[in-house]
Hints:
The structure is a homodimer.
Chain A: E1 3-8, H1 16-31, E2 35-40, H2 46-57, H3 63-70, H4 72-87, E3 92-95, E4 102-104, E5 113-116, H5 119-126, E6 130-134, E7 137-139, E8 145-147, H6 152-164, E9 168-173, E10 194-196, H7 197-205, H8 213-222, E11 226-230, E12 238-241, E13 254-270, H9 275-285, E14 293-295, E15 302-310, H10 314-326, E16 334-347, H11 357-367, E17 372-378, E18 381-387, H12 391-401
Parallel strand pairs in A: 1-2, 1-9, 2-6, 3-6, 9-11, 10-12
Antiparallel strand pairs in A: 4-5, 7-8, 11-12, 13-15, 13-16, 14-15, 16-18, 17-18
Amino acid sequence: MPRLVMKFGGTSVADLDRIRNAATRVKREVDRGFDVAVVVSAMAGKTNELVGWVRQTSLLYDAREYDAVVSSGENVTAGLMALTLQEMGVPARSWQGWQVPLRTNASHGSARIVSIDTEALEKKFGEGLHAVIAGFQGLSPEGRITTLGRGGSDTSAVAFAAALGAERCDIYTDVDGVYTTDPRITRKARKLERIAYEEMLELASLGAKVLQTRSVELAMRYKVKLQVLSSFSDVPGTIVCDEEEIMESRVVSGIAHSRDEAKVTVIGVPDRPGIAAALFGALAEGGVNVDMIVQNISADGRTDMTFSCPVDEVPRARVAIDAAKASGALDFTGLDVDEDVSKVSIVGIGMRSQTGVAHRMFQALARDGVNIKVITTSEIKVSVLIDRKYLELAVQALHDAFELEKIS
Amino acid sequence: MPRLVMKFGGTSVADLDRIRNAATRVKREVDRGFDVAVVVSAMAGKTNELVGWVRQTSLLYDAREYDAVVSSGENVTAGLMALTLQEMGVPARSWQGWQVPLRTNASHGSARIVSIDTEALEKKFGEGLHAVIAGFQGLSPEGRITTLGRGGSDTSAVAFAAALGAERCDIYTDVDGVYTTDPRITRKARKLERIAYEEMLELASLGAKVLQTRSVELAMRYKVKLQVLSSFSDVPGTIVCDEEEIMESRVVSGIAHSRDEAKVTVIGVPDRPGIAAALFGALAEGGVNVDMIVQNISADGRTDMTFSCPVDEVPRARVAIDAAKASGALDFTGLDVDEDVSKVSIVGIGMRSQTGVAHRMFQALARDGVNIKVITTSEIKVSVLIDRKYLELAVQALHDAFELEKIS
């Protein structure tokens, strides 16, 4: 029988009524003839509560115990979902990570999946027993419980879909798909029928919070067809798939934004080899997630280095840069920090074959008087840093310029 | 190194402050040189919440899923306790039932312990790592999670104490020991310094809710010295031990009561062999927990059969008796049900060697005008059924008659 993985996030299993609603959707697919593996998150809020307790016990907590505590939320939902399915006449049983087992490495708190033994699970499929799997968790080589990092249930679901050769992996959430941009910014935002893995990957890492980035990478690697859809409505969702499966080519598929960015310029750095390594080495050690990097033209043997990072990491960046200066590793004459910037990006696989896309973007922004502070590009993406006050204006202007309201 | 098992009930680990308080007690024993195995219950209220959710999914729920859901509460506490101990400088790790493993039979919801593999745990003791064990749970032959029935963490604790050859098993709870009777009924109630297993067993099954009956049975069988004590005070608790270890012999050690009993008399039953089997067989099948049984003198080939049971099981008893009559298995002329009775019992190993104890009991009750409806005795116990309104009076009278306020 064909197999389907259905993943329900925390808001979709937040209470018993919602679990029943999710179970109804599972039953529908069972009735269509699928062997279904349901992957569940913890009830909404549960994981935060457990994480809060762990953090209160200790600042430097043992990640193995963190995992033992935090994984319990998914176990509860898995059992309740199995019971609810049984009550609806769908034979099902729950599986905890160690029971499958889903094996991971020993990186507690953000473990990587090593393998999934699907034998026992497939044997039960053979007996007509559908599977309800506690997401987010696995078994370490030492026989201890691991977790895959926040949002890890998406990754669990994709990994099971790959291991089981599932026809599709449906990710049920509280939005009904992937949109051309944030619908709260423009009513013209349209739901995409399909999106390519690479586009989704860019959008995910650019701040569209629909899917965990790792799960998209995994889906792309193993060619798992993903569908993002709502557990609260019956409209079709967005299919995330190979670009070959997307008929009409689009130059730009979506516009992502990241509101709370900061731009830091280190002024008057000696323009000599190794200086970038010194600066960004110090920032990496200081735990600063540097995003965009620009180096200005040199003058008088000195140059300016500009980078962006999340605004709440600015204090850490200052500490790291000052420490590097104090140690003699880095020399500079001044620091310019702008904490009121946002990043706006256009993403589309069509950019690869079409020229002038960046130009159209800059024109559209210029037309509305939006000044660009920093630019970076990749093969399928152009990002700009702008004053935060222009964020909504810029997103709307770009959405219009690339005619995204005409997309479907 | 000598070993100690310390078990903390739900009220002793109800929140992070209480877990810290419990951990302080563990540290004290570690500092005294013990290898400690801490057995924890779920935070107070947690198990009830989980059981409630399971019951809402289905009336006839799958006990395997019940166990998967309900066992999660202990996992949370075990991890948090391990973290808290680590923070206090006590090396510790958590163990879930399947990790030890503690093996049980497949009777989900009320599984019996089959064996405990202590090898991995003892190896960790050798590395200086104390154990925090999730109570109440085990692993079935099929590799699924089982639970030991309500209050099962006591049983887990005693089983670990036996398997590890622990010097003592300390049961921390919200009372500071075992009392001669319920202190809410008489201020003269005294805490016992020591009590024999058999006495504790009678008191436990007679309604003193300090320890799960099964845990006392297990302690008696494996000669595990138990101590019942409070996690909220520093006074010594009550030691439950072999009667040889109790110096001064006492005729009566305690007075137990069970408030909500019913007395049912089946009138005019034919006085012939097999009739008791027919009646009590029907009651057993109907799920009625029959306690005391009395058969009256026969007259005209007919007799009356009287039994007691918990008052909330009377409807079930009526159904079972009527069904037995309808099927022709049982004949009788009438049914007399008294739902306003209570049971009071005196318990003491000294009764074995001393005569006249029951007589002293009946005299004391008669002196205060308490009418006795049914009497049963065992080697170390005399129980009477009385009108509920006399319950407190009877307990106080017996406490005085046997001078239990002088016990220590």
